[in-house]
User: Fold these one by one.
Assistant:
Number 1:
Amino acid sequence: MNAEGQGISKSLWPETCHGRWMSERYEPGLASVIIPTYNRARLLTEAMDSVLAQTYRPIELIVVDDGSTDHTRKAIEQWSSKCADDHLFRLSHFHQGNKGAPAARNLGLVQSHGEYIQFLDSDDILHPEKIERQAAELRECPALPWTSHIPRAPIPERSLIGPPNPILESQRNNSFPISC
């Protein structure tokens, strides 16, 4: 603990392009899905649809437009009516000058409030049960800092040390890897 009662001194952290870091506070149970995008209006709405189709709630969807010159902003505004009646789903949209996908992801992290974080590229879609299954896995095994797959069947042994190899895991545990 430092003098302010914080766990880690932020003076040791490097400067970010946004001038700040994500908060250590979060809303328990909330899943934050962060989609960085650049000129993918046509594909972006499919990615957003896959987030809305999640069986898990509550969700906050954070879309970071990284300086798009197409009609991305209009596509997001039109899409927002799809989630207007879902009180456990909220949409936030941020626009920044073109700084690249990593900076857009970082802005999404800074703006997020979720206990769970899911990155999603704007040209990908999520399996409808992805967040529900992964949140359940994290609740069942709180020592896991992250999870990268959805088990299709119960995993009989959990004796692996270190991050799982998605290819080996899928063969060993009858699961399929999901990129994030």
Number 2:
Amino acid sequence: MVYLKIFRKRNIRNRKIFISEIYAIFEMKKPSKIGLYVAKIHQTSDRLFSKKLKENNLADLNPSQGRVLFALREQDLISIQELANRTSLSNSTLTVVLDKLEAKKLIERTNSKEDRRKYLIKLKKEFYEDLEIYNKIILEMSRIYYEGFPFEEIEEFEDKLLIILNNLERHEKL
């Protein structure tokens, strides 16, 4: 393995080093295409998701609204800040999305019992009528994403994506 050859050449006894130390050893010879691939995946996924929403008479939802509804479906009654973190939407974008979802009577803002200055967001009954259809679309999208993946590699792949996301979020805060 390439890593072990480098370690032997440098007389490194401890072979358990961190990824950041490996990157210090290696220089990338050409730029990675991950940014391009992620952007293409995001755009293509949004177009396909919008198409599936239209096919199921949920055309008045856009992908950003779908992301918010998906996050609320996972945990209802969460703060706007927590929702922004879960959806990776900026506060200004999230505010617009919440306003539109509230106008469609799909969500409701309620005051927090612990902090009256804070609003909590929850799904309304009107959305639960479409929830089964929406869940079906999400499952279909998941099947499309992982088409051709061996089952045992899906969790590992998602773990790698999470590492990349954490790296980006950490550097964004610097």
